[in-house]
Write a structure and sequence with these properties.
This protein is of the alpha/beta class and about 280 residues long. Helices cover about 25% and strands about 30% of the residues. It has six helices and 18 strands. Strands 1, 2, 3, 4, 5, 6, 9 and 18 form an eight-stranded mixed sheet that branches. Strands 10-11-12-13-16-17 form a six-stranded mixed sheet, with helices on one face. The chain has a two-stranded antiparallel ribbon with strand order 7-8. Helix 1 (about 20-35) runs parallel beside helix 3 (about 75-85). The radius of gyration is 18 Å and the shape is globular.
């Protein structure tokens, strides 16, 4: 049986200043590593630059080196890689802006405990929505959509990758489970108004449906768009087990929360209720 995986989630309130966000994340991440000694540490969505104008987002985005290459890397990539190396901890980099020619992607990076990049995932489902308070979001105006399902190995566990709005599309999570996922990482910047009603419900539903652990590091607090309009994110970073129980949770404020991914519990739940052997879809 694979060993349990101690997992810490970082929660913070980022703005549009990449340098300030980096300083905040480094403080929070090193504190979590010192206090809880996790095997895996996960950051939220777009922690490097949340809010601001188009120019700020483009300036904060990084051209990512080819995996395994010695190409120069931007400050966020270097920080994540160095954090993994210096702490001997697997680092899930939440997501940052990735620049590819004239295009941007909302991209997750995963590093092993030696600082080697082992996975890269581009957000598939883009948040083009008007929320109940009338605030409009159009992620596709700036970012392109990914088109690949991505998993990686951390020790003896298979980890699936998703980002924020992907949470509303259970087909992606089912595909990750069918690709062998035991744990799914979901960094997010969920809005306050949708988060208070849907965040926990959806995370627990995806955990129950897939019989996977779900670990979701989230942004919390207020940031500002270029217009000066304030946007509020919900926080409540949490870990849910494959039965849908919340085993660790942050509430408001910056900090971290830590829980343990237990493969023995996963095996027991899947053996007692083998739902993925029972799928019977009628022909289209």
């Amino acid at each position: 049986m694979p060993a349990p995986l101690r997992t810490s989630l970082i929660q913070l309130s980022p703005g549009a200043d990449r340098a300030q966000n980096l300083r905040t994340v480094e403080t929070l991440a090193r504190r979590a590593i010192e206090i809880d000694r996790p095997d895996l540490l996960s950051l939220p969505e777009m922690w490097s630059c949340l809010g601001g104008d188009r120019a700020a987002k483009i300036a904060a985005a990084e051209i990512l080196p080819a995996a395994g290459s010695d190409q120069p890397a931007g400050p966020c990539y270097q920080f994540l890689q160095n954090l993994a190396r210096s702490s001997a901890t697997h680092i899930h980099g939440g997501s940052i802006g990735e620049r590819v020619g004239d295009h941007l992607f909302n991209t997750t990076l995963l590093f092993d405990d030696q600082g080697t990049e082992i996975a890269r995932y581009r957000k598939i489902h883009l948040f083009d929505v008007v929320t109940p308070d009338g605030a409009g979001y159009r992620e596709s105006a700036l970012f392109g959509a990914g088109d690949q399902i991505v998993t990686a190995r951390i020790r003896d566990l298979t980890v699936g990758l998703a980002i924020c709005y992907d949470l509303r599309f259970p087909e992606l999570f089912a595909a990750l489970r069918k690709s062998g996922a035991d744990l799914i990482l979901l960094p997010a910047a969920f809005t306050l108004l949708t988060g208070k009603d849907h965040w926990e419900v959806l995370l627990r539903a995806r955990a129950i449906e897939t019989q996977c652990w779900i670990a979701a590091a989230a942004c919390w607090g207020k940031h500002f768009e270029a217009s000066g309009e304030a946007r509020l994110t919900y926080g409540n970073s949490l870990i849910a087990d494959p039965w849908g129980h919340v085993t660790a949770r942050a509430s408001e404020g910056e900090g971290h929360v830590t829980g343990t991914i237990d493969p023995a519990l996963t095996a027991r739940i899947r053996a007692d209720m083998p739902v993925f052997t029972h799928h019977r879809l009628p022909p289209a």
